[in-house]
Amino acid sequence: MSRFVHLEFEGESSGNRPPPRLASGENQCLLDAKTAFEAADFEQALRLYGRALEFDTTAAAAWGGQIRALIELGDFDQANQWAEQALERFPHDPELLSAKAVVLGRLGDFDAAMTFSDAAFSERGEGSYLWLARADVFLSRREAMAEVCLQRAISGCDRDWSVAWLAARIQMFYEQFAQALKSAQIAVDWNPGNAIVWATVATCQSRLGLVRLAESALAHALELDPQCHFARQLRRELSNTGMLRRAGRWLGQIFHR
User: Fold this and answer.
1) Band of the pLDDT at 257, cuts 50, 70, 90?
2) Which of 6, 29, 166, 244 is surrounded by the fewest CB atoms within 10 Å?
3) At a CB cut-off of 8 Å and minimum separation 6, what does 243 contact?
4) Contacts of 3 (CB under 8 A, 6+ apart)
């Protein structure tokens, strides 16, 4: 099912799906969407950014938020369509150009991705997202300059934990789990009371085979927020991994008798 059912304007129906509990105004919707995004609840972020556009279709931040949520959900084709619509309205917006670059890179159109990233900087765009997006494009091209861009994003973000966390998510997407762990640990240092960054650390550790450490970080995440869905999903994965490991030992004992 297309996720564009979430991206409706007033008067359109979302079928039988009950509407999420939403704020009464555009600004609150944007704040709630940012909160959902930073909790890795990208489906809810998508809905909230869509609702913000019902208040004001000229809210470039809401357009960009939808594209970035779709990217995190892995819906690159839909993200590309949404980016095209956004850039028809805001052809010179640096963050929208950067989001388009990320989408194209993940779709494998590397030259076009770099063209859009260059365009974002040519518009005198500033901010960590432009550097994160450029790193994403370089990683899609398997170029070493990605690390420089990530360092630029993190060093220039005034200790914004979400930037380090997003850097980790980018590195995780490209299966650079050791590097992602370093970025996630920076996010933990900057915001040690945040469950999602601990869960991200645990994810990287589990992918690196550091199961005991992952279990410890995950336990801390769930202690901070027992309802963190990202942490709960990882707990299920680790539980299944533990069951498979125990089953493997049991079968090994049988075959060696």
Assistant:
1) very low
2) 244
3) none
4) 46, 70, 73, 75, 78
Query: Are 231 and 225 contacting, i.e. CB atoms less than 8 angstroms apart?
Result: yes
- Calculate the CA dihedral of residues 167, 21, 81, 113 and round it to 10 degrees: -10
pLDDT tens-digit readout, 56-104: 899 999 999 999 999 999 999 999 999 999 999 999 999 999 999 999 9
Q: How far apart are CA 96 and CA 126, in angstroms?
A: 12
Q: If you count them, how many residues does the chain have?
A: 257
Question: Which residues have a Cβ under 8 Å from the Cβ of 93 and sit 6 or more positions away?
Answer: 60, 64, 86, 87, 123
Neighbours of 13 (CB within 10 A): 8
Q: Are 145 and 110 in contact (CB under 8 A)?
A: no
CA-to-CA distance for 185 and 79, rounded, in angstroms? 29
Query: Residue type for 79, please?
Result: A
Out of 143-152, 205-214, 232-241, pick the least confident.
232-241
Q: Is 142 exposed, middle or buried (0-12, 13-18, 19+ CB in 10 A)?
A: exposed
Side chain identity, residue 229: H
Q: What is the pTM of this model?
A: 0.84
Instruction: Give dist(CA 30, CA 54) in Å, integer.
Output: 12
The distance from CA 248 to its chain's CA centroid, rounded to whole angstroms, is 34
